[in-house]
Design goal:
Blueprint: E1 7-13, H1 18-33, E2 37-43, E3 72-75, H2 85-93, E4 100-102, E5 111-115, H3 117-131, E6 137-141, H4 147-162, E7 172-174, H5 182-190, E8 198-201, H6 204-216, E9 226-228, H7 234-238, E10 245-247, H8 250-266, E11 273-276, E12 279-281, H9 293-325, H10 333-340, E13 347-357, E14 371-382, E15 411-419, E16 422-431, H11 439-480, H12 490-502, E17 508-518, H13 520-527, H14 529-546, E18 552-557, E19 560-566, H15 570-590, E20 598-608, H16 614-631
Parallel strand pairs: 1-2, 1-3, 2-15, 3-4, 4-5, 5-11, 6-7, 6-8, 8-9
Antiparallel strand pairs: 10-12, 13-14, 13-16, 15-16, 17-19, 17-20, 18-19
Helix pairs in contact: 1-8, 3-4, 5-6, 9-10, 9-11, 13-14, 14-15
């Protein structure tokens, strides 16, 4: 547990829908009365109507939830709107050691609170037959693969049979539990041989769509055709005419679910087969109430205010998108959140935890591998100083930061942070009131996840760039270095020496040297090319050992070597020449080879500016070298220039 209070988990989807917003509030009120905490695990599920999107990795977060930290679990399976989502959650919850209560559909192995939808539907149909005297009643069903649709249709047919009326009434139309089939349904019922006196719809949304379609065809509701819905939605109360409907009592659901968990915890005898009875509302759409225009005017004012607030929140969401698009580093996220998180309700704490791998690397790192059960906070906003921030090892499977506050019930909402097919971690928010956040929080989290994905992709791109850069630099190094000796080749020498000349400021003394091995052909012919290569490498080594005053040395090809130096003096040149002779003598004295390493040497010392030509200087040095080589008799005068 996160503290001494009892803590329960709530697993659901689309908790910001208007029905579930109220449901969460009811659960928070019921839990607060008993001093209990609730941790909500909310999913978005399918997003959109026409081009629906869903990422399977959204549910990956529940794989890391430790159910053992909870004293009870509430499961609201009705909201999961993607195939196999509910099954994955149910399979996870079957591993819980604490009791699990399903509140919106029967699940074998769980404790269940079932809805007496049959009694609500029965009361609605009987209201039309008994109160209004209707005998021609149509039925608009949800899609008939849904168990709720089949149950409500069967109750309709049963009541019609009991009343001595045709069981299919004035016709049965299969809808979609949503707003898309209103026009088709209106045309269906208006084309019947006898127009229905009333139509019973399997939920409020289809009733609203049907009434709207009837209005467009000049049909008055309820004067020409009466209509009822089901579920008691907020939309049904705001729509004109207000819907006759049967409502699911959310307060009753919350009270019974929490009470059941308390009783199970105390091992007290209790009825574990619980039912929630719907409450019927007979309103304007069946003609039981007339429109009160003064009341409707106030409702319109409220709706206008909601629309205006929606516009403000939409602008805030757009601004947040632009702000988050400027984030280039992970440590900039918290400041962006503080400035942008203004349009979804008042919160007291917000934390963003990113998953780490077994080496402690964050999920937005391109090196992330082998995910662990640890999560590290990258945004930590705690207005009241209630929580203890985890260290660098990260937050583990409890998902809730530790607090020493053991007196106040807390209600947390956890959602996966994901984008495309990658889960980054999770966000946790605690609101200041019993209300849940608005849909704009979902938008903000999606934008936040897009930002994380961009940082992850940028990290991948940067790493790839650095790898390519290193590879390019290595290739460039190889392209300007002699493969045999490792020193600069002709191309590298030209690039470095010309660049050095370009950097000259005013006239400066420079020096070029040309050094040629003596006797390489004899070594190759007598001792083989492997020995010839060894002799070339030793010559290059001796030359580089002499380069102590900023000289640039390179192998021009074969047995010839070039040297360039800026800011040079005759003293430096004399020193170089003596060192070259000394190192050759030193090598030959201790050599284990049947040949000697000897060199011919020519230099040119002059003044030049940055327009000087390295090629011209080397020609003079080469001439001097050749003269020295030709003047050798018995290997004398080896150091002349």
């Amino acid at each position: 547990m996160i503290n001494s209070l009892k803590t329960i988990a709530f697993f659901g989807c689309s908790l910001t829908s208007r029905y579930r917003q109220g449901l969460c509030q009811c659960f928070n009120i019921a839990a607060k009365k008993r001093g209990m905490n609730i941790v909500y695990f909310n999913s978005l599920g399918r997003i959109g109507e026409k081009n629906t999107e869903f990422s399977e990795c959204e549910l990956d977060i529940i794989d890391h939830v430790d159910l053992d930290v909870f004293d009870g679990i509430i499961y609201d399976g009705e909201g999961y709107n993607v195939e196999s989502m509910a099954e994955k959650v149910i399979n996870k919850l079957r591993g819980a050691k604490c009791p699990v209560v399903s509140i919106s559909g029967h699940v074998d192995g769980f404790y269940n609170i079932d809805f007496e939808d049959a009694s609500g539907m029965r009361k609605l149909v009987e209201h039309f037959t008994d109160v209004h005297g209707h005998t021609r009643i149509g039925f608009m069903s949800g899609f008939l693969t849904h168990p709720d649709a089949r149950l409500r249709l069967e109750v309709f047919r049963s009541v019609m049979r009991e009343k001595g009326l045709p069981e299919d009434g004035a016709g049965i139309f299969e809808g979609d539990f949503w707003f898309h089939k209103g026009d088709e349904a209106a045309d269906f019922f208006l084309s019947r041989p006898e127009r229905p006196q009333s139509v019973v719809c399997a939920n409020d949304y289809m009733a609203i769509s049907l009434i709207s379609a009837l209005k467009r065809r000049g049909i008055k509701v309820p004067d020409d055709i009466a209509v009822s819905g089901f579920d008691g939605t907020i939309e049904g109360r705001q729509f004109i005419p207000h819907l006759t409907t049967a409502t699911r009592e959310r307060e009753d659901i919350a009270e019974k679910a929490i009470s059941l968990l308390v009783s199970l915890d105390k091992n007290t005898d209790t009825d574990t087969e619980l039912y929630v009875s719907p409450r019927t509302i007979f309103d304007q759409s069946c003609g039981c109430r007339i429109v009160d225009y003064e009341t409707e005017a106030r409702n319109l004012d409220d709706i206008y205010n909601d629309v205006r607030l929606f516009g403000y929140c939409l602008n805030d969401a757009e601004a947040a998108m632009l702000k988050l698009n400027k984030v280039e580093k992970l440590d900039e996220l918290e400041d962006a959140f503080r400035k942008c998180a203004t349009n979804f309700g008042d919160y007291s704490a917000f934390f963003l935890f990113l998953q780490t791998d077994r080496k402690g690397r964050l999920s937005c790192s391109c090196d992330f591998d082998e995910p662990s059960d640890n999560f590290r906070p990258v945004i930590w906003i705690d207005e009241k100083g209630t929580y203890v921030k985890p260290d660098e090892t990260g937050q583990t499977s409890g998902f809730i930061p530790y607090t020493a506050d053991t007196e106040t019930p807390h209600f947390y909402y956890i959602m996966s942070s994901y984008c495309a097919e990658k889960m980054f971690g999770y966000a946790l928010i605690e609101m200041k009131s019993d209300d849940i956040f608005s849909d704009f929080y979902n938008i903000f989290l999606l934008n936040l996840s897009v930002t994380l994905e961009r940082l992850w992709k940028n990290d991948n791109i940067n790493q790839l760039y650095e790898q390519q850069k290193a590879l390019y630099e290595k290739q460039m190094e190889l392209s300007i270095h002699d493969e045999l000796t490792g020193i600069l080749n002709r191309r590298g020498f030209n690039e470095y020496s010309k660049a050095a000349i370009k950097r000259l400021r005013g006239r400066t003394a420079v020096c070029t040297m040309v050094i040629d091995m003596d006797g390489l052909k004899h070594i190759n012919d007598v001792y083989g090319h492997n020995e010839g290569d060894f002799a070339i490498k030793m010559t290059a080594h001796i030359i580089t050992e002499c380069c102590k005053s900023g000289e640039i040395a390179g192998r021009a090809g074969g047995d010839e070597f070039y040297i360039y130096a800026s800011d040079y003096t005759r003293e430096k040149l004399d020193s170089f020449s003596r060192e070259l002779v000394r190192l050759c003598d030193e090598y030959n004295e201790r050599r284990e080879k049947p040949y000697r390493i000897e060199m011919s040497f020519g230099a040119y010392l002059c003044e030049t500016d940055n327009s000087g030509s390295i090629e011209d200087f080397l020609k003079i040095s080469d001439t001097n070298m050749y003269e020295q080589k030709m003047s050798k008799h018995g290997r004398k005068n080896r150091g002349s220039y």
